[in-house]
Write a structure and sequence with these properties.
5-stranded parallel beta sheet, 3-stranded antiparallel beta sheet, binds cytidine-5'-diphosphate, 233 residues, alpha/beta
Length: 233
């Protein structure tokens, strides 16, 4: 199916399956997938490793700003398992998905200069078009003119179970309670922060995938794109 060179923005709460859907779309329609959350997670990991955030989520803002100004090099490398985030030569994909990073990423992502840093990278990555990007503010702030905007939701139970299974499959050992609490906390901070909070763009289409299989999601998306671009095939 011949989808034009557009930007597809996918936003929604934590663990709603945005990245799974974005990866499916990238594969099916030959788009480049960009995971904006990975970059916020990457900044969080570097801040934690440099001791710039304490257990009470107090952030050493001047030091964090210097760290980002010193020229942090983030780039994605495509592997059979999808895009992997690197900083310089170091792959940080595993570390950024840990509960430790998840527990502090939302306060870091609420810092305006962190958002500006990530937005810069996203604009750079998105310049070529034919990109599907997922996050919290892609359709509202990063690419407000994206030609297709989806807002993905799922029930809290389904989301917690999916994230729990995902972490266990990666060899982590969280309790269901920890996972549920982390999702709730992030949802709250992400939708209440001052700079570009999570919200559905007025022109975003809602997909509730609580009871959808991946196959149903891609069929739904295909139908949606056919309708949007007048594709008959
Ligand atoms: O995969 P999951 O839904 O757990 O989250 P993610 O997409 O990896 O994003 C991690 C965190 O980064 C979110 O909880 C937000 O705090 C932040 N984020 C953001 O503020 N804006 C974005 N466009 C993407 C992520």
């Amino acid at each position: 199916m011949n989808v034009p060179d557009i930007i597809i923005a996918i936003d929604g709460f934590s663990a709603t399956g945005k990245s799974t859907l974005a990866k499916l779309i990238a594969k099916e329609f030959d788009f480049v997938y960009l995971d904006s959350g990975a970059l916020y997670r990457g900044v969080t990991l570097l801040a934690q490793e440099a001791g710039l955030i304490d257990e009470g989520n107090n952030i050493d803002l001047p030091a964090l700003r210097s760290l980002l100004d010193s020229g942090v090099d983030f780039h994605f490398t495509l592997s059979p398992d999808g895009n992997l985030l690197f900083t310089g030569e170091r792959c940080i994909e595993k570390e950024i998905r840990s509960l430790k990073v998840s527990s502090q990423v939302s306060p870091i992502a609420a810092v305006p200069f962190v958002r500006a840093f990530v937005d810069n990278l996203l604009h750079e990555f998105g310049r070529r078009g034919r990109v599907v990007m997922d996050g919290r503010d892609i359709g509202t702030a990063v690419f407000p003119d994206a030609q297709v905007k989806l807002f993905v939701t799922a029930s809290p139970e389904v989301r917690a179970q999916r994230r729990f299974d995902e972490m266990v499959a990666k060899g982590e050992n969280p309790t269901m309670e920890e996972v549920r609490k982390n999702l709730e906390e992030r949802d709250y901070i992400d939708s209440h922060r001052e700079t570009n909070p999570l919200r559905r763009a007025d022109d975003a289409f809602v997909m509730d995938n609580s009871d959808m299989t991946l196959h149903e999601e891609i069929v739904w998306t295909r139908g949606f794109l056919m309708g949007r671009f007048g594709i008959l095939e």
